Amino acid sequence: MFAALQLALAIVLEIVATTALRQSNGFTRLWPTLLVVVCYPVCFYLLSRALRTISLAVAYAIWSGAGTAVVAAIGVFAFKEQMNTLKAAGLALIILGVIGLQLGGTSR
């Protein structure tokens, strides 16, 4: 259970860092740049800790899949980026893949 919390926090920090990366304007804005510099290392640390218990395939699929889906939604709603049918289908396939890996088992 603790590994799942570490993974969840790693996902949240990855989402914050990636969103801040967009807002940093090529690292020319201080506060978004600081968020990137702080959040990514902590994110990777928490992911590495979660990998002590959760298998690599499952943890990475959940981490990257959830991050991708949420960041895509943030792009659409916060930054007015376009979402079309092909992009939505791709995100759905990512989510289905993560579910499939999860159903395949989480222990080493």
UniProtKB/TrEMBL annotation:
<keyword id="KW-0813">Transport</keyword>
<dbReference type="Pfam" id="PF00893">
    <property type="entry name" value="Multi_Drug_Res"/>
</dbReference>
<feature type="transmembrane region" description="Helical">
    <location>
        <begin position="30"/>
        <end position="47"/>
    </location>
</feature>
<feature type="transmembrane region" description="Helical">
    <location>
        <begin position="85"/>
        <end position="104"/>
    </location>
</feature>
<keyword id="KW-0812">Transmembrane</keyword>
<dbReference type="GO" id="GO:0005886">
    <property type="term" value="C:plasma membrane"/>
</dbReference>
<keyword id="KW-1133">Transmembrane helix</keyword>
<dbReference type="InterPro" id="IPR000390">
    <property type="entry name" value="Small_drug/metabolite_transptr"/>
</dbReference>
<keyword id="KW-1003">Cell membrane</keyword>
<dbReference type="InterPro" id="IPR037185">
    <property type="entry name" value="EmrE-like"/>
</dbReference>
<feature type="transmembrane region" description="Helical">
    <location>
        <begin position="54"/>
        <end position="79"/>
    </location>
</feature>
<dbReference type="InterPro" id="IPR045324">
    <property type="entry name" value="Small_multidrug_res"/>
</dbReference>
<protein>
    <submittedName>
        <fullName>Small multidrug resistance protein</fullName>
    </submittedName>
</protein>
<comment type="similarity">
    <text>Belongs to the drug/metabolite transporter (DMT) superfamily. Small multidrug resistance (SMR) (TC 2.A.7.1) family.</text>
</comment>
<keyword id="KW-0472">Membrane</keyword>
<dbReference type="GO" id="GO:0022857">
    <property type="term" value="F:transmembrane transporter activity"/>
</dbReference>
